[in-house]
């Protein structure tokens, strides 16, 4: 039999004549024991011969990754190496359900970055799922041709309980384009069981392209956890830089599609702020095309209202995740503007803890005359300065531990 370089049989069907809609799909079922991102030969179309097999392989550029996991929904994202139509097969016992993304009368297709929301889920329930994708080989107005469907490995996730009295998470910051740091730091977490990972800014130096996002963030995270546990991508000042910074949000999902948001999980009201750039908007490097003062002011107005919402009143703790800390971070504009806008609100509403990064100097700063809440700052990005933060909370206490990359616990803080 004719085989490609991955020893996959080439389908003779690729040579058949096209119909009005040449759906040549047949499912290539790839078992869990096979590689994470299986691929199959993708046909090409020529005027002379119609469909032909080729050496090109179609498959996923990234394993699926979870965003915005709530009690009853989750967003599953992945990137294919060619334009395709993708869907999710899922269920509690089997993969009996199927969903895809719809808008404006279209099923999402002819794209490579796929975002599919599963909704109507039950709280505190484990679901199995897998991504299925079929490449679009030709998209002519009356001649649409698909390649074979690739079905990927089955993964699972568990929705949070609606009345859970506990929550735990891992917080990383200031990785700065060092993808190996994800495994170096998460390997220190051992049997610490976490519900989600918060990436607290500056995962990159600046944004260049999709490949950088895949190689330096999505792939290391999916290799470790992100297909089964969600992460929050909290923007730092470095994520606002570079030619691809304006495409950055496409690769994640955010509540209300804003970089600042809050949510309740366990006994914690989590508040995420986007602290923007660290220098004035007028700094020459920004080319007069940023307006982070205005963005922070918008967030301060939002925050004051958010902290008064009745839906969060029964939360035992209020924890803020923000990249630039409001103290212990020098006196550049970003720090000072965040201090001016957010610090009075933190004190007024009794924030229990602020967790940041940015300074590359880890430290635990207890309440003081300057701030009546603790400020936790994770380190990075060089060896012996990198840290991973573990946080767990229940109705009795909130415990935070900061571990340096050599395994030494360099900070702890508890709220009883
Ligand atoms: Fe930073």
Characterization of this structure:
With 416 residues, the chain is mostly beta strands. The protein is built from 4 helices and 28 strands. The strands form 6 sheets. Strands 1, 2, 7, 8, 9, 12, 13, 14, 15 and 16 form a 10-stranded mixed beta sheet that branches. Strand 21, helix 3 and strand 22 form a beta-alpha-beta unit. Helix 3 runs parallel beside helix 4. It is globular. The model is unreliable at 1-36 (pLDDT under 50). The structure holds fe (ii) ion.
Regions with pLDDT < 50 over 5+ consecutive residues?
1-36
**What is the overall shape?**
globular
Based on secondary structure, the structural category is mainly beta
Report the helical percentage.
10-25%
> What's the helix count?
4
Distance between the termini: 68 Å
Bound molecules: fe (ii) ion
Radius of gyration: 23 Å
Main sheet specs: 10 strands, mixed
Number of strands: 28
Mean pLDDT: 90
Topology:
Elements: E1 21-23, E2 27-29, E3 39-41, E4 44-46, E5 50-52, E6 57-59, E7 65-67, E8 73-91, E9 97-99, E10 102-103, E11 106-107, E12 111-119, E13 126-140, E14 143-146, E15 149-151, E16 155-158, E17 166-172, H1 180-186, E18 196-200, H2 210-224, E19 231-234, E20 261-265, E21 268-273, H3 292-306, E22 317-322, H4 333-348, E23 353-356, E24 363-365, E25 375-377, E26 387-394, E27 398-404, E28 409-415
Parallel strand pairs: 1-14, 2-15, 17-18, 18-19, 21-22, 22-23, 23-25
Antiparallel strand pairs: 3-6, 4-5, 7-8, 8-9, 8-12, 8-13, 10-11, 13-14, 13-15, 13-16, 17-26, 20-21, 24-25, 26-27, 27-28
Bound molecules: fe (ii) ion (FE2).
Residues 201-202, 236-238, 323, 358 line the site of fe (ii) ion (FE2).
């Amino acid at each position: 039999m004719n085989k490609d370089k991955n020893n996959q049989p080439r389908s003779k069907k690729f040579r058949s004549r096209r119909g009005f809609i040449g759906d040549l799909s047949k499912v290539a079922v790839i078992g869990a024991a096979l590689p994470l991102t299986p691929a199959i030969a993708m046909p090409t179309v020529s005027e002379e011969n119609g469909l032909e097999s080729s050496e090109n392989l179609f498959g996923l550029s990234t394993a699926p990754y979870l965003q915005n996991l709530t009690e009853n929904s989750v967003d599953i994202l992945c990137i294919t190496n060619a334009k395709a139509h993708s869907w999710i097969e899922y269920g509690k016992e089997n993969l009996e359900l199927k969903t895809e993304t719809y808008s404006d009368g279209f099923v999402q297709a002819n794209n490579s970055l796929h975002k599919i929301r599963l909704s109507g889920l039950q709280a505190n329930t484990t679901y199995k799922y897998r991504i299925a994708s079929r490449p679009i080989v030709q998209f002519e107005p009356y001649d649409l041709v698909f390649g074979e469907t690739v079905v990927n490995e089955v993964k699972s996730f568990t929705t949070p309980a609606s009345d859970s009295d506990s929550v735990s998470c891992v917080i990383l910051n200031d990785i700065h384009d060092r993808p190996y740091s994800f495994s170096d730091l998460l390997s220190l977490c051992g049997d610490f069981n976490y519900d989600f990972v918060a990436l607290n800014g500056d995962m990159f130096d600046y944004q260049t392209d999709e490949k950088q996002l895949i190689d330096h963030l999505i792939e290391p995270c999916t290799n470790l956890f992100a297909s089964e546990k969600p992460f929050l991508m909290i923007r730092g000042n470095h994520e606002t830089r570079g030619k691809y910074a304006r495409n950055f949000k496409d690769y994640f999902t955010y509540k209300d599609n804003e970089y600042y948001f809050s949510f309740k999980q366990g006994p914690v009201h989590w508040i995420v702020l986007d602290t923007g750039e660290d220098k004035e908007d007028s700094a020459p490097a920004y080319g007069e095309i940023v307006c982070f003062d205005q963005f922070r002011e918008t967030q301060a107005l939002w925050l004051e209202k958010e902290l008064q919402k009745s839906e969060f009143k029964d939360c035992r703790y209020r924890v803020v995740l923000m990249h630039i800390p409001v103290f212990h971070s020098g006196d550049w504009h970003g720090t000072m503007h965040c201090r001016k806008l957010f610090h009075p609100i933190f004190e007024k509403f009794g924030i229990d803890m602020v967790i940041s990064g940015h300074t590359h100097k880890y430290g635990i700063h207890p309440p003081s005359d300057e701030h009546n809440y603790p400020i936790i700052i994770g380190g990075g990005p060089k060896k012996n300065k990198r840290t991973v933060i573990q946080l767990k909370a229940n109705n009795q206490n909130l415990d935070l531990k900061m571990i340096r990359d050599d395994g030494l616990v360099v900070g702890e803080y508890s709220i009883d």
